[in-house]
Every structure is written in structure tokens, then in C-alpha cells.
Amino acid sequence: MNHSARRPRARGLRRLPRFLAGAAIVVVVVAFAIHRRAPGPPPPHPGKGVLRIVTYNIRAGLGGLDRVAEDLAPLRADVVALQEAERGIPRSRSVDQPGELAEALGMEAVFASSFRIGGGGHGLAILSPHPISDVRTHSLPQGSGRWPRVALTARIDAPTGPFRMVCVHLARPRGWPLSNTATRVAQLDALLEALQDETLPVVLAGDFNCLPIALEGLSIARHFAGAWNPWRDGWATSFSLKSVGFPGGSVKIDHVYHERSWKSHGTWVAPPGASDHRAVIADVVPGWHELLPASRRAR
Q1: Is 155 helix (H, G, I), strand (E, B) or coil?
Q2: Chain-centroid distance, C-alpha 97
Q3: Nearest C-alpha neighbor of 268 from the set 276, 260, 256
Q4: I need a surface site. Which of 75, 125, 133, 211 has the fewest CB within 10 A?
Q5: For 51-297, CATH number?
Q6: Dihedral, CA of residue 186, residue 139, residue 128 and residue 204, to nearest 10
Q7: Across the chain, where does the E strand assignment appear?
Q8: Helix (H) or strand (E) holding 115
Q9: For the whole model, what pTM was predicted?
Q10: How does residue 179 score in pLDDT terms, banded at 50, 70 and 90?
């Protein structure tokens, strides 16, 4: 019997452990290199011509609304995207959380309810010290997610020029980290379709409930640039896994995206505060932006 045809496969199998060991070493080296690049605190002010975008899941303000305001005040944001904000819900003392935070921070606020609890609304908010107008709410597919989801968008007239701010909170994984991926991708597809006619530059921020290298991130990358650069910013993890039953660790699921013609000057995470999430800060520089037709997102 001729065994010569089997030998290449046997040699390949013998090489597999060495290949896997080499790949593991590469992963460890890359992970360590990114970890070493973790930046210090953000500069106290982003500087002229730079927009500071902040996204923060405040966990219904259950850690104290005053503490949420204390988390946000030092960041001096041009716009804040809030997730899990509440208005008129008994468990959060039936207060208007976006309104109270806006008053404490010297900003305007707009709110969109994703769903209602006890006569009040739980959802998204956008805060800014600059004029806010043309506020819109877009329903997103619920799919296999537990709760209905929406996207909140608003025009922000910043000193650097007007732009469209979009705040989202995508479906949460259930049972294991990659669950509900199809639902989140469908939610992003619906949002991108809703933005097809938008002529203003777009900034997209929120709790995406996925890693930046997941399928959802790849879907967004076809249209927008991420503000996070791991070689510059380190891991910048924003969510503590202890809050979902793990003994420790954290992951990056809160993100900021912008037009490809814009430039990111850095992203940071704020110190742990009133929520199980940490506020994510991105300093971005608006670039040249042409008013495009309805097909602007079909790239």
C-alpha cells in the first residue's frame, strides 16, 4: 500500500501545535503592547477646533444622580450621549434625569423613551451646551432582544459647525457574549438606512453592547471611522464584568464613531463613578464635509 499521499497531512498535523503556540505568543505580545499604551487622563479642555464627545450609560441613575453629574462635570463635553436615562419612573424618584443633569451641567437636554415603566420613560438623552434642534427618534428592530430599542438624533450647532449627533443603546447579549449579534446588526442596518438622507456630518455614540472587533463594529466601519485607536489609546475598557456575575475584568462596549473625513485626537475612559459603565471621552476634529445625496451611506 502506498502511504506517501498521507505524509504531507501528517507533517501538517505535527506543525499545528507549533503554529498555535506561535499565534498565541503573537496575541499575548500584541495585547501587552496595547495595554502598555493606556493613556493618562484626558486634557482638561479639548482645545480650539476640537469637539469633545462623551458617551455614558448611567444605569438609570441608581448610583445617585448627583454622582453622575460629578462624573460628567470635569469632562467639559461639547455633547453627551446618555443611555439608560429615566424620566418619571418611581424607582428613580420620578425625576426628569436628563433635565436635572442638564441644569447641573449648564446644558440643554433632549430625551427619547425606548420603553415605558410605571408611567415614565426609560431611554436615551443628548445633552449639550450648544443649541440643540431637529430632534428625531428612530425605532429599531427588537429582534431577540428583551427590550424595545430606539436611536435618538439631534442637530448640534457647535462652534466648529453643525453636525448630527446620534445616541444608541443596542440589544444586550443574553446568556453568552455573542448572543443577539444578528439583532444588533439589524438595528444598525435600520439606523444606517434612516441616516441615508442626512446631509450633516454624523457622530454616532452609545452603548453598543459589543466589542469593537465584533461583526457589529465591522458593519459600522463600512460607513464611519472609530474614534478609538488601540495603539494610541490602549484598551480603554468601559464596562465592569462584575455587574453581570463575573469575578472581575472589564470590556470595551461603549464607542464613538464619526465621519471618515474627521480626525480623532484621542479617546479616554473616565475613572469609575456612579455606574457599572465608565464614561468614554473622544476628542475629534471636524473635517471637510460635502453635502451628499441620499446614497451617501451606500459606500
Answers
A1: strand
A2: 20
A3: 256
A4: 133
A5: 3.60.10.10
A6: 10
A7: 51-57, 79-87, 108-117, 120-128, 132-140, 149-158, 161-169, 202-207, 225-226, 239-240, 250-251, 254-258, 263-269, 280-285
A8: strand 108-117
A9: 0.85
A10: confident
